[in-house]
Amino acid sequence: MEIERSWLQELSQILRADQLLTGAAARRGYDCDAYTVDRFPPVAVALPESTAEVAELVRWCNVRKVPFTARGAGTGLSGGSLPALGGLVISTKKLTKILEIDLPNRQMLAQTGIANKKLSDAVKAAGLHFAPDPSSQTVATLGGNIAENAGGPHTLKYGVTSSHVVAITMVTPEGDVVELGSRVPGGPGLDLAGLVIGSEGTLGIATEAWVTLTPLPNHVITALVAFGTVRAATESVAEIIASGTIPAALEIMDRGILGALKAAFGLEYPAGTEALLLVECDGDSAEIVKAEMATVDAICRAQNCLNLETAEDEAARQKLWTARKKGVGAMGRLAPSIVTHDGVIPRSKLPEMLDTVYEVASRHQIGVANIFHAGDGNLHPCFYFDDRDADQVRRVVEAGEEIMRRCIELGGSITGEHGIGVEKLDLMGLMFSPADLEFQAQAKRIFNDGALCNPCKVLPNQKSCVEHKSRWRGVAW
Amino acid sequence: MTLIHSLEDLQTLVKEQPLVRHMSPHRFRNSSLPPAVELDLRPCSGILEVHPSDQVVVVRAGTGIRDLQTELASHGQGLPWIAAPGEDPNLDLATAIGLNLPHLGMATHASWREWVLGLTVVQPSGELVHCGSRAVKNVAGYDVQRLLVGARGTLGIIAEVILRTCPLKALPSVDAPSATEIDFIQRCLPTDFEALVESLGGAVVYADEAASVVYGVGKPAVSGSGWSLIAGSYAISDPVQSKYWQRAKAEFDPSGKLNPGEVQL
Ligand SMILES: Cc1cc2nc3c(=O)[nH]c(=O)nc-3n(C[C@H](O)[C@H](O)[C@H](O)COP(=O)(O)OP(=O)(O)OC[C@H]3O[C@@H](n4cnc5c(N)ncnc54)[C@H](O)[C@@H]3O)c2cc1C
User: Fold this and answer.
1) Where would a tag sit more exposed on chain A, N or C end, judged by fewer CB atoms within 10 A?
2) Which residues between 26 and 85 in chain B have a beta carbon less than 8 angstroms from any beta carbon of chain A?
3) How many CB atoms sit inside 10 A of residue A63's CB?
4) What's the CA angle centered on A193, arms A187 and A197, to 5 degrees?
5) Are residues B145 and B36 in the same domain?
6) What is the pLDDT of residues A334-356, one digit of tens each?
7) Does A183 lie at the interface with B, CB-CB under 8 angstroms?
8) A18-72: pLDDT as tens digits
9) What domain range includes position B192?
10) How far is residue A213 CA from its own chain's centroid?
């Protein structure tokens, strides 16, 4: 749908011409995020430069009853920034400033369109960093991290985004500007920032945030361990956690990933390797870090690992991280389409769950590779297939749902970091009863009781979304 | 005081009564409150599930923290909670979580908002609902549990809690001062801490420098960043808190049944 002339005129009162994209190319470019199955174009894309401009845009949307959806870098994996009912995409592309660095209090105030890694880069010289480290961190934005409560390989020890964002400036769905949370956390009262973090842009648009900065550890040891069976790798993870040692990272890559790495980058691993386990221990005391690594070493050897390589200096450590960092990219070269699932199970159930993943994939005759945050019990089975073949798509969807059901049966969750978006709307009912979902809807209505701010996300069966769904639902339906 | 022995009892009573007070008496609750039926959830206690290898425990909210710690220790686990000076030794989970009570391990181990992974809640209608999950990492849906920690029992009655636990060797250790009565807890930014302690002078009972928290007698200092928790009263000064608390109340407890007067909106 072309944007109406009168709307253009009104929006030009708020934004310069170069801050509003209305052409067909732009509308196509913003019709989905990194979950490409569902698509719908916005009528226009706005690029505000300040909190005040965002607020004016949102108020305009309220007057004209235009749906609006916040968008950061568009790396979301569940369709969170898909403009499901069209309307305006409000992009944070021009909200990239660091506004204040408070080193003595180890906090930083930044606009939310800044890339995650830029936050860490800005304070590296001071020996600090922003701890959440999603694999997409070079592009994914602070706002996107807040909206999805993003995690990363080091979440195991350092916690997800909610542990590192203390205060948020947000434009509410009605267009008010509010300050949520406090630079001094832990206080009495309602944790409104805590509710907003992870709410997938449905409770308002975050424009600025105070984040906490974590000291970089003085000592880091990284180990890359090769196993002859996936089971030995997952058992090792369960034992490491049960031993009371909490490494900074515990990541697994299976043979599917290693094959892709070989094909894409020529990387080789010891013969007979079925799984690689990446372990990182860090801290301020060399002695403690060494002792932790010794525990890891003993557990992996008792599980008959094929090879265990450790590194302490930065360059050698980065080399060990190559498989983890390049694994997802390598997958993309294997098949026309990949769907990366995101389920969570209690860590002790990892060995059993991985067996299920392989069994389900083989029964549905689809290729699967696994690269995941094992320490958190956060699985990412990647199915590779050809999305031009409706039958393959159907099998991928069915297999995904089966895996999610099993995660829930084992006491886990249908998403550990990618969010519900539109992708997992239909799975919410597996995890929550209708009363539980209404409980969540009550929480949502505290900020958003209309149908304009990022509609059709997180909660299933929203008014006016059901009949529209067929318009954005992908080839699978 | 009506003793509550089971979830079913709790649901029935809450459904029938027009005004219900729950959570245990505590110095940081409001001291002057309108009459309501008083429910004591402490008999509704005990661990429901413990998963040491996953570092998760599911427990009834009436359980005393001390009892929970003893039980967890036998599994090599614990909560990183170190009671503040003068804290009630029989403090139960529902009260600690409802008030989001500070403690002496905050500098390194944060607090309830980070530890509560999920809740079972009785709503004013008597209906039982769940939020969160047993998974340590979970972003499915809205984190309603975040909202209930610190809501002073005004939005729902916490009946069961899923908590993240810690291996014993990772628990914080603090030389806690011996029990003393305190009147307030105040926290500020680290850079304001010295000035805060100075301005409080003899009112300081214990200064937790690592967390920039002061435990004191008398009144907290007026100036400075941050927040304070004061014995006997709780009034909201921040207009954003006030506005959204009212909206939350209108959604979760429109008839004002739960913990009336606990928060001056
Ligand atoms: C290769 C790859 C690897 C990834 N690895 C990880 C990983 O390790 N861990 C992880 O957690 N995720 C990972 N992701 C998913 C994704 O990168 C994260 O969810 C990220 O936080 C999204 O940020 P974004 O800026 O791209 O947000 P978008 O995709 O643009 O938006 C995501 C959601 O946030 C909302 N939003 C964006 N900005 C704002 C704002 N300012 N205010 C309110 N709402 C807003 C949108 O409406 C949408 O709902 C990965 C994705 C890819 C493609």
Assistant:
1) N
2) 51-56, 76
3) 9
4) 135
5) yes
6) 788 888 889 999 988 999 999 99
7) yes
8) 999 999 999 999 999 998 888 999 999 999 999 999 999 999 999 999 999 999 9
9) 184-230
10) 20
- Judge whether A430 is closer than 8 Å to chain B, CB to CB: no
Distance A74 CA to ligand 1 centre (A): 6
Residue B49 located in a structural domain: yes
The tokens describing A442, both together, are 């009550």
β-pairing verdict for A44-46 and A88-91? parallel
Q: Give the nearest partner residue to A184 out of B100, B150, B187, using CB atoms.
A: B187
Q: How many CB pairs under 8 A join A and B?
A: 211
Helix (H) or strand (E) holding B162: strand B157-164
User: Which atom of ligand 1 has the smallest separation from the CA of A112?
Assistant: 41
Measured in whole angstroms, the distance separating CA B76 from the mean position of its chain's CA atoms is: 24
User: Which of A161, A184, A461 to probe by mutation at the B interface, max B CB count within 10 Å?
Assistant: A184
* pLDDT value of residue A477: 42
- Residue whose tokens read 């949370």: A181
Question: Structural domain of residue A270, as residue ranges?
Answer: 217-324
d(CA A348, CA A459): 30
Exposure of A315 by Cβ count < 10 A (0-12 exposed, 13-18 middle, 19+ buried)?
Answer: exposed
pLDDT score recorded for residue A476: 43
How far apart are the CA of A34 and the centre of ligand 1, in A? Answer: 9
Mean pLDDT across A278-301? 96
* Selected residue of A250, A439, A445 to mutate for chain B interface (largest B Cβ count, 10 A): A439
Is A122 domain-assigned? no
The count of domains in chain B is: 2
Average pLDDT over residues A206-213: 98
Chain B CB within 8 Å of residue A347 CB: yes
Mean pLDDT of A278-296: 96
A417–B139: do the CB atoms touch at under 8 Å?
yes
Over pLDDT 90: what percentage of chain A?
A: 85
Looking at B2-149, which runs of residues are DSSP E strands?
Answer: 2-3, 20-21, 37-40, 47-51, 56-60, 77-78, 116-122, 128-132
User: Taking CB atoms and a 6 Å cutoff, what residues make up the pocket around ligand 1?
Assistant: A 33-34, 69-77, 80-81, 92, 112, 134-136, 140-141, 143-145, 147-148, 150-152, 200-201, 205-206, 328, 417-418, 454
Distance CA A197, CA B143 (A): 8
> Which one, of A199, A145, A137, lies nearest residue A173 by Cα?
A199
By the CB < 8 Å criterion, does A456 face chain B? no
**Is the pLDDT reported for residue B152 higher than 70?**
yes
CATH number (domain holding residue B124): 3.30.465.10
Which residues of chain B neighbour A151 with C-beta distances below 8 Å? 137
Identity of the residue numbered B253: D
Residue in A81, A95, A171 to alter for ligand 1 test, most ligand atoms within 8 A of Cβ: A81
DSSP H or E run through A283? strand A275-283
CATH number, position A276 = 3.30.70.2190
Residue with tokens 């392989």: A358
In the chain, the amino acid numbered A54 is: V
The confidence score (pLDDT) of residue A1 equals 66
